[in-house]
């Protein structure tokens, strides 16, 4: 578990499938504006259980690390954050992604979660670089990353297919200060 002042991050457990399904179902329209197309079974309890099992396998293989974002006060699941496309060898890098319940936006939870996962990536996983891609008009997400220490590197043109359309992404990155 990664603990911050107001939230904590922990790997998903099978028991979280119902809460994860509610989070994604309640925020479907909001999340899908910025995410790749979801499979048909994504919005089912079985789909969530399968996703959680996949997360655990990916962590064991050192391919990706997926955490739920939980509030300290009531232990409510309010989002998720991950390090994915973990690359070893000469690169030692990963990409960060996250979602947060729309009703919790603007409260600093995502910035805190990004800071926690960056510290984990650098100190526990010994990554050298963590990057993120954000649609250029998603200014709130860019601000989150900048507050967490990320710097802008440029635009990746037509980088991710979202809702059937190839979208540009602002690339941001942070480097391990210990390297």
Shape: globular
Strand content: 25-35%
Low-pLDDT regions: none
Look at the structure and give the mean pLDDT.
93
Q: Approximately how much helix is present in the residues? A: 25-40%
Please state the structural category. Answer: alpha+beta
The end-to-end span amounts to 25 Å
N-to-C order of helices and strands: EEHHHEEEHEHEE
> Main β-sheet, in a few words?
8 strands, mixed
Radius of gyration: 16 Å
Quick one: how many beta strands? 8
Number of helices, where a helix is a run of at least 4 consecutive DSSP H or I residues = 5
Name the strands of the widest sheet in spatial order.
1-2-3-4-5-6-8-7
What layout of secondary structure does this protein have?
Elements lengths: L1 E2 L3 E5 L5 H10 L1 H5 L12 H16 L4 E7 L5 E11 L5 E8 L8 H15 L5 E6 L4 H9 L3 E12 L2 E11 L4
Parallel strand pairs: 5-6
Antiparallel strand pairs: 1-2, 2-3, 3-4, 4-5, 6-8, 7-8
What key attributes describe this structure?
single chain; 179 residues; 5 helices; 35% strand; alpha+beta; eight-stranded mixed β-sheet
Description:
The chain has 179 residues and is α+β, with helices and mostly antiparallel strands. Helices cover 31% and strands 35% of the residues. The chain contains 5 helices and 8 strands. An 8-stranded mixed beta sheet has the order 1-2-3-4-5-6-8-7, with helices on both faces. α1 crosses α3. The model has no long low-confidence stretch (mean pLDDT 93).
């Amino acid at each position: 578990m990664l603990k911050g002042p107001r939230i904590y991050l922990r790997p998903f457990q099978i028991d979280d499938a119902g809460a994860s399904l509610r989070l994604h179902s309640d925020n479907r329209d909001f999340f899908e504006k910025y995410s790749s197309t979801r499979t048909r079974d994504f919005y089912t309890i079985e789909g969530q259980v399968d996703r959680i099992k996949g997360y655990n396998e990916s962590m064991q293989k050192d391919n990706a690390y997926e955490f739920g974002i939980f509030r300290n006060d009531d232990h409510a699941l309010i989002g998720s954050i991950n390090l994915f496309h973990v690359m070893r060898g000469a690169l030692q890098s990963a990409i960060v992604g996250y979602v947060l319940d729309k009703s919790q936006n603007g409260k600093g939870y995502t910035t805190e979660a990004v800071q926690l996962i960056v510290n984990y990536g650098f100190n526990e996983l010994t990554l050298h670089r963590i990057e993120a891609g954000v649609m250029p008009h998603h200014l709130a997400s860019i601000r989150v990353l900048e507050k967490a220490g990320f710097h802008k590197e440029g635009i990746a043109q037509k980088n991710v297919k979202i809702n059937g359309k190839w979208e540009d992404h602002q690339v941001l990155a942070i480097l391990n200060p210990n390297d």
